[in-house]
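Task: fold both queries, return tokens.
Query 1:
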Amino acid sequence: MEFPSKLIENAVGELAKLPGVGKKTALRLALHLLKAETDTTASLAEALAKMRFEIRYCDTCHNISDTAECSICANQLRDQSTVCVVSDIRDVIAIENTAQYQGTYHVLGGVISPIEGIGPGDLTIDSLVERVTKDGSEIREVILAISPTMEGDTTAFYLSRKLRDIPQVHVSTIARGIPMGGELEYADEITLGRSIVERQRQAR
């Protein structure tokens, strides 16, 4: 693809690095921004820079946050006795959109995948165990809401083994309303909400 300007070419090249954005789409976006008001383009650039350099991760649950504690963990109206364990921040957003869950979360940051070189030590599993076992912990149920893929099931099995000997905590999994091999973020809200409501307790 030939470009009349090196600046446009550079912009298109960067935009095309985004997932799902090809060169043609990137060119349309770049030309749109070029025609837009200067303030519009400047605001977009500033928002992206602030997101990248100023965003934090919650010290407790590892969700994205603007402060040391995310809005969910800080909300005392949430059920502090229940923790929903997910692999990715996008899963938190998906579950929140169902409006069926009022507990807290724990974001693992991925799933166990030996093929990709990701082991338990690369996830926030130790942080979860520490949350559950620390003195004064209110946690009584841990819900494993991990996508039902081979790697997801491996991660859920590993977590259930790690948590099964903690006497005050019950481990449950979301009901299989989510199809095998599916990703939580792509599930419709009704199916995902039903999966949360009809979660199943793990046998010790």
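Query 1 returned. Query 2:
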Amino acid sequence: MTTPEPADRVLARASLAEGDPTAWFDRLYTAAARGEAEVPWTRGRPNPDLAAWVRPGEGRRALVVGSALGDDAELLAAHGWAVTAFDVAPTAVEAARARFPESAVDYVVADLLHPPADWARAFDLVVEIINIQAMPREFRPAAVASLASFLAPGGTALVSEVAEENQDMANWQGPPWPFSRAEVESVAQDGVRLVSLETIHDGARYWATFTR
């Protein structure tokens, strides 16, 4: 018996065929809410690498990219950050609000490819963990440019993606599609500079920090 293809890949392929790199996210969350699919990146707890890094926020502003069901955003809020968390999928944002009805996090629907203008240089911490890698390469420069634009002077951006150089790319099927080292480093633009870049999880993933 043939194993069914994961719903995220089926929906992503259909979305890309329509020329839209992000529509499949809401379709996947909607299917998951009906019990017809699984969202592979939701695990009911914060990202462990972010949990290991987290610092006191002391009221400073943080932005969580692709906030999903809210676990990373709530972790930062619990450490004193004033958190804005966005997702392109309205269903995900609604689910996060429902999970944390008393939350101080500002959960909003927004598109990384077309972000709100008032987010420019507005955040002291920007967190991007395994989201942009869900986009094919032709869409990534615009997404990375948006990511860099969010960072306030003196702030920190955390970027983590699957590392292409340590994967069997000849047999890889996405999404996600791993990042090259050069793609991660490209966040250093428009006054943003790379502070550190390492591989974690036995070389499987990049973990990079940037500042402006």
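Both queries returned. Flag for query 2: The mean pLDDT is 89.
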